[in-house]
Specification:
The complex is a heterodimer.
Chain A (H helix, E strand, L loop, with lengths): L3 H7 L1 H17 L1 H7 L5 E13 L4 E7 L6 H8 L3 E11 L2 E8 L5 E5 L9 H33 L2 H15 L2
Chain B lengths: L7 E9 L6 H11 L12 E6 L15 E2 L2 E10 L4 H19 L6 H18 L3 E10 L4 E4 L4 H15 L2 E4 L2 H8 L4 H8 L9
Antiparallel strand pairs in B: 1-6, 1-7, 2-4, 3-4, 4-5, 5-6
The chains are: A alpha+beta, B alpha+beta.
Chain lengths: 174, 204
């Protein structure tokens, strides 16, 4: 395996492409998401999306935030060559909802809010509370892992260049 | 950051290697060996060690108290003292004036100034309490994965260093390349493909 810091920097574009592909799926290929994660009811872009466009000598960062923000600027950025570097996502399974920020370069989860759990009133309840939280965290980690594994298998296949990228371009320029 | 907080951040790790049997006794022994030490009445500026999630200010690891279900749950604690520059300057100037008045001299040489500053700094370190930062973690030993509840670079680096020192296990941070390489079930030829990838241009 490559050195960790070298591989982190050299391949962080995979995380950015993953988020860009994920946006495409949420907009155009919802059935794929449902097939990959059967318990998923919905996966939506939340109130924040960050895109990055790298030029020869500089970087342009576009941040769109706000509960009712339009994503047209994001699409425009994609047309100019940007990729998604950060997403606020809302994930629903049944009547339970998770919200979190997913950063492309690390695939770290931040600001994760899980479905409401009971308050811990005593030390005896702590064990149950930890197990319940761990179960709810695992749902999000599992979701990311399943989708990322699908992405990476697609990414190293010929289908990526021959089918997926043209479809993403069609979506960007629609 | 507490795992029971209403909002959390998670960094995922893969843990490889085995600990000697009896497993729980080994974990308890290693946690105790690297438990946080109090530095409030000490000249130390910083302390890093393990603590219990339930009682972070009075850590106890007896009786597998860190084991919840199939998880090991404990926390990293980083205590740091920070003396404001203006407080240091005030006491340093007062001490210099006192020394000049006692000796009848007009100034101190550089060595004397540095000694005064060091002495004042040490005195203040004893008087200042450390600010504790606590970062919970959940370790699934059988599943070989660990969640550290912070994305802060410095906290993650301190955690990685202390974990490796404590358990002598391989701890690998999971990010796009390492997930693909270690957790995506790729064959050797697929891994070769992975290593050859270059960025896609989505725009025309």
């Amino acid at each position: 395996m490559l050195d960790v810091s070298v591989s982190y920097n050299r391949y962080k574009f995979l995380g950015h492409e993953f988020l860009t592909w994920l946006w495409f799926l949420m907009e155009k290929e919802r059935s794929f998401l449902q097939t990959e994660v059967p318990e998923l009811t919905s996966l939506e872009v939340g109130n924040r999306i960050v895109l990055e466009n790298r030029f020869n000598e500089g970087v342009e960062i576009i941040t769109i935030k706000g509960d009712d923000a339009g994503l047209e600027e994001g699409m425009l950025s994609l047309r100019k060559g940007a990729v998604v570097t950060e997403f606020h996502l809302s994930f629903t399974a049944g009547d339970q909802q998770w919200q979190f920020i997913l950063k492309g370069e690390s695939l770290n989860v931040s600001n994760l809010k899980v479905p409401k759990t009971g308050n811990v009133e005593s030390g005896e309840e702590l064990e149950g509370a930890v197990l319940e939280k761990a179960y709810l965290f695992e749902k999000v980690i599992e979701l990311i892992n399943i989708l990322y594994k699908s992405f990476i298998k697609l990414r190293i296949s010929s289908e990526w260049k021959e089918k997926t990228v043209p479809e993403i371009r069609k979506w960007i320029y629609a | 950051m507490g795992l029971l907080s209403s909002s959390v951040s998670i960094t995922c790790y893969k843990v490889d290697g085995t600990l000697e049997d009896p497993f729980m006794d080994t974990v308890e022994k290693k946690l105790k060996q690297n438990m946080i030490m109090e530095i409030d009445d000490d000249v130390s500026e910083k302390a890093i060690g393990w603590t219990s999630m339930e009682n972070p200010y009075q850590p106890k690891f007896e009786g597998s108290s860190f084991c919840i279900g199939t998880y090991l749950v404990f926390a990293l604690r980083i205590d740091q003292k920070s003396i404001p520059a203006k407080v240091l300057k005030k006491f340093y100037v007062l001490e210099m004036l006192k020394m000049l008045s006692e000796t009848g001299r007009k100034y101190l040489n550089n060595t004397e100034k540095r000694m005064v500053k060091d002495r004042i700094y040490s005195t203040l370190l004893r008087r200042y309490p450390a600010t504790p930062k606590i970062y919970d973690l959940i370790w699934n030993y059988e599943g070989s994965f660990l969640w550290f509840f912070s994305n802060q670079k410095s906290a993650n680096e301190e955690f990685e260093t202390l974990f490796s020192k404590t358990f002598q296990l391989s701890l690998i941070r999971l990010f796009p390349y390492t997930i693909a390489d270690l957790n995506a079930g790729l064959s050797d030829s697929q891994r070769e493909q992975l290593n050859k990838l270059s960025p896609t241009q989505f725009s025309e």
